[in-house]
Amino acid sequence: MEIIPFSPSKGMKTLFNCEDIKLVRLDSAAQVMIELESPSQLRRLIYDGDQDRFQEYLSAVDEIQKFIKSGLITGYRIHHWTRAKKTLQQLFQEILNCSIRETKSDALSSTVNSSSITSSYGYELQGSNHLEHGDLSREQIYRLQSIVERLHSSGCIGGCIEVYKISRKSAVDARFLRFCIGKWTINDLQNLDCEEFAAKIRIWILAAYRCYNSIFPGEKQYYERIFHGLGDITYDNCFLPIVKHAAIELNNFVDAVSSVASFQKLFAVLELYEALVVILPKIQNMFHSESAADMSHWASKTTKALPNLIRKLMMCFEDTVLNERLNSAPSNGIIHSLTEYTMTYVAKIIRNKELLTNIIVSRPTKSLGNQADDKFLEASNGTPLGLHIIWIMMSLRINLEGKSSFCEDSLLRYIFLMNNVGYITRTIKESPELLEIIGRDYPLKLRKDVLQLAEEYISSLSQRVLYCLRDGGLNCKFLFFNLVSKKALKKRYKSFNATFEVVCLINSYVLDMQLASQLDALILCKLLPALKSFLEKYGSYIQFEWYKENDTSNAHQSTWRESLRKLLMEQRLYTKVLQLQLTLEYKY
């Protein structure tokens, strides 16, 4: 019997060849995974950015997965897939660790400059277009997404979710830590001075803007791209835990600010409120789910509550201006520190008038204790904010009236009031915006006050000076005639010179040059006729006494004229009086 050798058919050969090819591909994929399982190779994949090598590894993983699904992996090869899953998980964690490693170290040494805020409404960020520490690059996102897809298809995604949440929360917290906001309490903020408090507010604004315009949206994009299409990985169980802690810290800071009680911090609170209004829609959009409703509710509630704090601080300032009881007035009648501070504060109010107009919505209700001022306010038809500003200036005027009583000289009282009320008037005149919001009636009232004070000042001054030029007490009566007492006349004239010297000095304290010129004219109108009459009547006696007491022709150089000339040569008032005296004296 002839033995015919076995010769496989063409189809049989194809079958064997296919099986061989699959085994070769399987062994090749396993070999790639074995090569990349070493720590050194993993580091190269992560840090060197070798895209081709990473893609080769993914292809090998895909190849193994196909064989698993087809049931062709048996025996010793099954352990390659187990090791591959662990390697993918290691890659996933190392990529995440790589993104946050520098962020943590940077957070410890970084400081934030509040001047980074460049716009009151937009709060534009410097350098916001470049990749910062903690950000994920496109390459890293692609790799993480690729790993997640393969682990999810094999049912091994659970551990990666926890790793991802921990890692990205660490990145967000580290970036938030860079702003140095910390856990500030109410007492901490109360103890800060105004500049430090304002700096903290600006840092909060910068932090909030970065979080709600960059950090939080960035994390949302990472989550959506990396875990796209995975129904069991949701906004609530993945994204929210990453950003919620930083958001709560931002909220806590604002809650602490809401309890400040110093009116000096009003404008920093205004800045915070303005920023919060801008950020509010972003907060509500970011925390839109039911589980995050408390965050959105907090933002809405706080944005509504801050105006009450602002109104409270305004009222506190108003009360301070009216009731400040530092019982002192400058010895030379110049501008009081309360006047300067109040008008500077008012100027800041005007700079924030658009915001405050929407917050200050009711007229002043407290009485100033002055019937005329209360009636003026009742009759005014200005905006609530404008009436509150007028109320502040009226309070200042009343307070200054009380302080003027502590002036050493009654004439200085008038100078003090004229200078300070004039300062208020000039501040209004130099600010068209302030004049627009308060109207023209109150500035006109203040100008009338200054004129009234000037009249009272001239009247008091004239009485003091003219009293020295009276006739009474100069004559000695005898039986048939009267004689002028040269001793009394000399004493009276010296008293006039001393009083006039004080008057000239006090008059030099008037700061408004136009008002000073008007006062000069008024004083001369009252003084020169009386002085002329006095010198015409008694000039010869005075001249006789000078020459009697001084043997030299230059004796008059030591008289009152020289001391006054040295002290007040630049005073026009003094010069005119001196010219009159010289003219009349040398007639005799």
**Termini separation:** 180 Å
Number of strands: 2
Q: What is the CATH architecture annotation of the largest domain?
A: Up-down Bundle
Low-confidence stretches: 1-16, 107-130, 544-572, 584-588
Give the rounded overall mean pLDDT. 77
Strand content range: under 5%
Structural class of the secondary structure composition? Answer: mainly alpha
With strands numbered from the N-terminus, the spatial order across the biggest sheet is: 1-2
Major beta sheet summary: 2 strands, antiparallel
The residue fraction in helices comes out at over 70%
CATH class of the largest domain: Mainly Alpha
- Global geometry: rod-shaped
Determine the CATH topology of the largest domain. Monooxygenase
Total of domains: 3
Taking all Cα atoms into account, the compactness measure Rg is 45 Å
